[in-house]
Amino acid sequence: MKRAWVLGGGAVIIGVFAWLLFGGLEKNMVFFLTPQELLAKGTEGVGVPVRLGGQVKPGSVKWDAQALDLRFTVTDGGGEMPVRSTGAPPQMFRDGMGVIVEGRVGTGGVFEASNLMVKHSNEYRAPKPGEEAHEKYRTLIQQSSTP
Amino acid sequence: MIGLLAHNALLVSVATVVFGAVIAPIAIRTGRREWLQLTYGAVYTNFLLVTIATVAMVVALVIHDFSVSYVAAVGSRSTPLLFTIISLWGALEGSILFWAWVLALYAAAVVWLHHRRPGNLVPYAAMTMLAVAAFFGILLVGPADPFVPVFPVPSDGPGPNTLLQNHVLMAVHPPLLYLGYVGMTVPFAFAVGAIVSREANSNDWAILSRRWMLAAWAFLGAAIIAGMWWSYEVLGWGGYWAWDPVENASFLPWLTATAYLHSVMVQERRNMLRLWTLNLCVATFVLTIFGTFLTRSGILSSVHAFTTGNIGYFFLAFIAIVLVSTLVLVAGNSEHIRTRANLGGAASRETVFLLNNLFLTAVMLTVLVGTLYPLIAEAIRGVKVSVGEPFFNRMTIPAMVALIFLMGVGPALPWGSTTWTEARRRLLPPLIAAAVMGVIAVLAGARGVYSILAFAFVGYAAVGNLREYWVGMKARRRAHGEGWGTALVRLIGGNRRRYGGYVAHIGILFVALGVAASSTFRSEREATLVPGQTLTVAGQTVRLKNVWGREEPQRSVIGATMDVLGRDSAVIGTIHPRMNFYRVSDEPVPTPDVRSSIKGDLYVNLMAFESNGANATVKVIVEPLVPWIWFGGLVIVLGALIGMFHGGRRRTPSAPTPPEQSAAEEPVLTGAGE
């Protein structure tokens, strides 16, 4: 009798747990899409959390440092999605670079990013001559040496 | 030269461990127990050989021998010595070598400490560890060979991943992690040994394996906390946990190990849950291998999967072999494992332990499913998805809050059964603390149900656990007239296993409080400042002084110097958030600066700067109670140490128990309810 209770109780608990688990998953899943795939969803793609991957369209970056307002366009060659983000871009953020932005498309068709990640590979290599990314901070080092 | 020597040492070690693993069952079956010396010899020889290979790798790294493939991949002449040495575990092949070395160390320690023990448990455990060592040995001489000769020899290498050479915690976190991960092989080996030698019915193996699990559990817990600390100090986002697959991989075996540490007590006291406890041992081990598979196979994209490789199939095959062979073993010996014992009353400690195991398993399964779901979705539905933090938070936080509550319930209830009146008498007092903590949380601005419950239950569990010390100390004072301090020390010393557990509980409560406070009351602001401008976040004000740059041998450093202002705008300190640019990567490594106090952290990260130093964009985060998390980690380790080195109740059964020990234990252990 006791055993039946334990087994029955266990089954109910597992059932409820599985139901919660998969229900929770469906609701909290974030699709990983390119601009083209997101645009193809039409209105269905509005308001749902998405991870948008692609390149920063050259010439599209507008950064207002005082308002911390960053606008750029993510492209995958086939589609383009304007993105608005609040907060400083990563220091090396630049045209043509691979990015992943987390957020959702607002009603105006602009992707409101809550998180901006620069995509970089696991491969680390020494930079070739002439492509060192030092220019950005070279002047600062030359000007000031006292912390 | 070094590479060849090390490679040959590894080849011989594979032959040695295979021989040692094969000879053990033959020795036992044929009754030639003296052959077991060969198995034990293989364990020691393997330790020696893998040590030679590991030392050879460290030497190759330090002398920059770029003819060794691993050194060519992660070494660099400009890397500081410390980071050169610790790049031993910075990438795939080196970390597998380090794993093999830690495993060899554990196996040698187990054999050294337990080889005199009668019976077949230790021989079979040694056999199991040798078999696992064979797997890692084969990886090292095959697909993950770190000693492949490189020709022509490069003059310099790229150096370790820049993230990994930016903070000294990288010298702490991985070794702790490996000591934890690999240490879980030992209880697994004892579990297999117990099944094969048909000793699963005795509690002896459980006492042995429990100690080793406690050690591994403490290492893994400390490693997880150190990893949280590292990501807090290095990644620059002001957080310490993101439900990233790599983080989940370390959390999964910790959860099952925690469940094991509780269920093994039920097994010892009440002869219940034998099969379950065995399975938790196996599951914990499999989850460590599985975690390694997740992080080392490149199958899941993760922000910090530092290595990729194609050795994933080896790990999958190994997991399959482990699962199938343990299933067969358990099925073939089930009549020796099963026990019939009845649950005590509903209000008893074992009920709480059952619930504890239920919740821990549920959290483990949730995290496992959430981590694997992207793989499943891509395989079945062909869509790329990621499972966001909200899923993990929504699914696990209720269970973890419940676990904190149980932490306050379990210690108060006796084994067996008690009356509801007695249970109420013991469980109601902490409710006052719960109410006080809950009200404080609400007054401070907490709004979410689980957030408020978390604070309340931390209060409940704290009082529930501290009450145990109080009752025990009072009893000792009554019985022996000791002072409070003496009573406390003798109380813990006399019941190390119990009080070790309670100390660990207190550590967990520190962590829980830190996590609850920092996630509920965190405030952050980002702003672009010109020198002289100030920014105020949650009552704390910083003022930008200047932006500067500096060249170092292996990197360029850009920093902002900021004054921390007190109440009357007086400067009470400075803070230096920086950005490190390494030669080998375009990406700067954020290096936030943290000013800690008992109340919490002021955390400043430099986000961007104008190249002429005209302005700097900084993110300022005020995180209450975060240092409590790191402190809690230390307390947990302390608790595990106390519980591990418990007195000789089992080892010297003939020695008379000192009278004060039993006297102090009785009133606490059985209570007035019996």
Describe the structure using short key phrases.
heterodimer; A: 147 residues; five-stranded mixed β-barrel; 29% helix; B: 674 residues; alpha+beta; 22 helices; 11 strands; 62% helix
What this model shows, in words?
- The complex is a heterodimer of chains A (147) and B (674).
- The longest helix of chain A is centred in the first third of the chain and has 27 residues.
- A five-stranded mixed barrel of chain A has the order 2-4-5-7-6.
- The radius of gyration of chain A is 23 Å and the shape is elongated.
- Chain A contains three helices and seven strands.
- Chain A is an alpha+beta fold and 147 residues long.
- The N and C termini of chain A lie far apart (75 Å).
- In chain A, helix 2 links the parallel strand 1 and strand 2.
- Chain B is an alpha+beta fold and 674 residues long.
- Helices cover 62% and strands 11% of the residues of chain B.
- Chain B contains 22 helices and eleven strands.
- In chain B, the strands form two sheets. In chain B, strands 3, 4, 5, 6, 7 and 8 form a six-stranded antiparallel beta sheet that branches. Chain B has a four-stranded antiparallel beta sheet with strand order 2-11-10-9.
- In chain B, a hairpin with a 2-residue loop joins strand 9 and strand 10.
- Chain B is globular.
- The C terminus of chain B is likely disordered.
- The interface between A and B is large, with 51 and 62 residues.
- Strand 1 of chain A pairs antiparallel with strand 1 of chain B.
